Amino acid sequence: MTAPLQDSDGPDGAIGGPKKVTVIGAGIAGLVTAYELERLGHDVQIIEGSREVGGRIHTHRFAGAGEAGPFAELGAMRIPAGHRLTMHYIAELGLQNQVREFRTLFSDDAAYLPGPTGYLRVREAHDTLVDDFAAGLPSAHYRQDTLLFGAWLDASIRAIAPRQFYDGLHNDIGVELLDLVDHIDLTPYRCGTAHNRIDLHAFFADHPRIRSSCPLRLERFLDDVLDETSSSIVRLRDGMDALPRRLAARIRGRISLGREVVGIDVRDDAVDLRIRQGATTVTRTCDYVVCTIPFTVLRRMRLTGFDQDKLDIVHQTKYWPATKIAFHCREAFWEKDGISGGASFTGGHVRQTYYPPADGDPALGAVLLASYSIGPDADALARLGEAERNALVTRELSVMHPELRRPGMVLGVAGRAWGARRWSWGAATVRWGQEAALREAERREAARPQRGLFFAGEHCSSKPAWIEGAIESAIDAAHEIEWYEPRARGVFAAARPSRSERSA
Ligand SMILES: Cc1cc2nc3c(=O)[nH]c(=O)nc-3n(C[C@H](O)[C@H](O)[C@H](O)COP(=O)(O)OP(=O)(O)OC[C@H]3O[C@@H](n4cnc5c(N)ncnc54)[C@H](O)[C@@H]3O)c2cc1C
């Protein structure tokens, strides 16, 4: 498993002397790569196309509210506490005191989810969910607790999976799984204030064999369901952007913003980057390059000197879109409706609605993450003009929260459609439903260097779509460069020690 580099590895430990490394992209992968390489004694500079660091970690602060005002996480917003590498950097950067609980989907009994005739509160949804779920089964001879298990698993998947993907997963919660669960006493897993829900985390943690007997597609997706509905997820109190900002402040090398890489030519002894800055484009010859930009961006540029397998993975890696839209509200009106946090499953194009903590000065208002959608719903929202998109979200969401229609309630709107953004053209890679060996083969291919050109980013990791994955890949890339010998270009893979040998 990837481990942060040890103090004994640097700063004077650069094997074969300091190398000059250019990192493309100042997202979390680029920043961690640069930080670790500098610790090892190498010279690093970062080229970033946009005008900001952080990439897909993006905290939007509403104008007029200042640094102390409410903000919206338009990119990453939560960290599962088991993401060891991310938690390591949080501690290393002195952000430990900002770690707070992140309240997630269905964590508040007063939150909503759609029922057959309108929205239901989580606390009162069980009978409707069970009836609905049982009606879709070939026979309903199961115990009530088994049906409750199936109904909540189904509701969680429906709230998290893109609509089209859900249909297949829904069928996967079939009789084989329920037959197994029916033999288990579920009383210890009942949870919620009225004990009318099943704690899926505790259940699957105690019954790994049941988990591994799920159909492959469901088994793979369960990680995301459990991560996203876990009670042990955290956030950073003052905004997730503290992580990239603190890292950037620790990096000694130059971070050049507004420099877009538009072409990469890998040669035997160097890597040429074509870099656009304003109206001019220049070629920079680099000894070593770490490319952390998403493959969706890379495949739009001119690439030469890449082997065919590498080009194939660059072109074929699948990304999902995601769109987030946040409303800056005059007040946290949902609190008067009994909701103290967490999220509702809203359905429609809006999909999920989060209620971030309104723990700042009430005079500055509160933020509602009105809509977090992925897949085709995110694309549909991305295609609309800003005014039309905001109107659609307001229309859909005000069925659940009519307060949004009150004059002066919404003070401002901010959104980001990651699938339509030129610096990402997608939210993240997904390898849902893939068999483990294929996932790993794709990961290795994505991360495989091309002579002096190395790769990092969430798409090169075993935890795609998470900050954890981006960090894992960055540490791997720093290891690779540290051990790379120029004369071995082309036979690098055979010459270097394996990762486990290196960390032994
Ligand atoms: C909506 C959303 C929600 C998410 N939620 C979570 C979450 O809750 N928890 C979690 O852990 N993860 C979450 N993620 C995933 C997480 O944000 C990413 O896995 C991680 O931030 C990716 O980091 P990266 O460095 O690999 O890529 P990026 O952050 O995309 O960094 C790449 C950088 O390259 C730059 N770049 C692109 N093209 C060029 C170019 N041509 N020239 C120069 N620079 C260029 C970009 O501007 C960017 O700064 C979420 C992602 C999204 C989009």
UniProtKB/TrEMBL annotation:
Cited InterPro entries: Amino_oxidase, FAD/NAD-bd_sf, Flavin_amine_oxidase, Flavin_monoamine_oxidase
Per UniProt, where does substrate bind? 78
The chain positions of domain Amine oxidase read 28-481
Q: Which positions does UniProt annotate for FAD binding?
A: 75-78, 261, 458
SUPFAM superfamilies reported in the protein's UniProt record: FAD-linked reductases, C-terminal domain, FAD/NAD(P)-binding domain
User: Needs which cofactor?
Assistant: FAD
Q: Is-annotated flag, keyword Transcription?
A: no
**What biological-process GO terms show up in the record?**
amino acid catabolic process
Instruction: Return one GO MF term.
Output: L-amino-acid oxidase activity
Pfam families annotated for this entry? Amino_oxidase (PF01593)
Q: Which keywords does the record carry? A: Oxidoreductase
**Protein name as it appears in the record:** Amine oxidase
The root-end lineage is: Bacteria, Bacillati, Actinomycetota, Actinomycetes, Kitasatosporales
